[in-house]
């Protein structure tokens, strides 16, 4: 995202200037930047979840687990879900992203609260700016929250089952191999859940900001 979006925060406003390649998309640059940031994080974490599930399938005595992971059906379902999630995020951020024409006014209102704030150059630039007054912001927050919670539940469950399976098959591995498998599984689980924690925080914060803006 450092190349495509290259967001330049306009603190304390809930937004950033799009300085990357996506700025050439014009009015739509902010929406696609939102989508790129959220989806890239989601896909990175989902890929790690798949890695954990693959390790789980390899350790099973029943070969059908591994066959399912490697089957064309699994790949099709995975890509279908990815396409669906992408469609939903594009639709959602079209609702949550403030129109570029309204951003100068929003920044001016923010300046009244923070007179020492550095005023960004608006003309000729495009900004990611979350409209927390929109009812769709709570839906966006919920979508992010639920997605990351689901990934966290799946990863924690898989890691737990893998560790149990490793313990059962401990005699089949050398001490060094067993230790390596165990360490890699724990490290991957921690890595996934750290990312999930950030996503859960983002979703919760988005929903809370909408609530505090409207009630």
Quick synopsis:
This protein is mainly alpha-helical and 215 residues long. The protein has six helices and three strands.
Write out key terms for the chains shown.
disordered C terminus; 5% strand; 7TM_GPCR_Srx domain-containing protein; 6 helices; 215 residues; mainly alpha; transmembrane; 3-stranded antiparallel sheet; 68% helix
Structure commentary:
With 215 residues, the protein is mainly alpha-helical. It has one domain. Helices cover 68% and strands 5% of the residues. It is built from six helices and three strands. The protein has a three-stranded antiparallel β-sheet with strand order 1-2-3, covered by helices on one side. A hairpin with a 5-residue loop joins strand 1 and strand 2. The chain is elongated. The two termini are 34 Å apart. The C terminus is likely disordered.
Task: Give a topology summary.
Elements: E1 7-9, E2 15-18, H1 29-58, H2 64-70, H3 72-96, H4 103-113, E3 127-129, H5 136-168, H6 175-214
Antiparallel strand pairs: 1-2, 2-3
Helix pairs in contact: 1-2, 1-3, 1-5, 1-6, 3-5, 5-6
Distance between the termini: 34 Å
Q: Average pLDDT value?
A: 76
Largest sheet: 3 strands, antiparallel
Order of helices and strands: EEHHHHEHH
Helix content: 55-70%
- Please work out how many helical segments DSSP would assign: 6
The secondary-structure class comes to mainly alpha
Can you tell me the residue ranges where pLDDT is under 50 for at least 5 consecutive residues?
196-215
Domain count, please report it: 1
Overall 3D geometry? elongated
Share of β-strand residues: under 5%
How many β-strands, per DSSP? 3
- For the biggest β-sheet, the strand order reads 1-2-3
**What's the Cα radius of gyration?**
21 Å
């Amino acid at each position: 995202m450092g190349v495509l979006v290259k967001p330049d925060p306009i603190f304390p406003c809930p937004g950033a200037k799009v300085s990357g390649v996506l700025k050439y998309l014009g009015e739509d640059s902010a929406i696609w930047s939102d989508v790129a940031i959220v989806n890239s994080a989601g896909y990175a974490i989902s890929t790690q979840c798949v890695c954990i599930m693959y390790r789980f399938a390899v350790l099973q005595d029943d070969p059908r687990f591994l066959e399912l992971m490697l089957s064309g059906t699994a790949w099709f379902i995975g890509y279908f879900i990815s396409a669906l999630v992408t469609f939903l995020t594009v639709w959602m951020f079209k609702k949550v992203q403030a129109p570029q024409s309204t951003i100068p006014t929003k920044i001016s209102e923010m300046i009244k609260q923070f007179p020492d704030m550095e005023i960004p150059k608006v003309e000729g630039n495009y900004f990611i700016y979350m409209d927390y007054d929109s009812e769709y912001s709570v839906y966006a927050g919920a979508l992010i929250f639920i997605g990351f919670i689901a990934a966290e539940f799946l990863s924690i469950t898989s890691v737990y089952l893998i560790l149990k399976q490793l313990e059962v098959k401990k005699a089949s591995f050398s001490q060094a191999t067993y230790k390596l498998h165990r360490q890699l599984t724990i490290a991957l689980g921690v890595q996934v859940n750290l990312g999930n924690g950030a996503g859960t925080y983002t979703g919760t914060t988005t929903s809370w900001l909408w609530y505090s803006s409207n009630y």
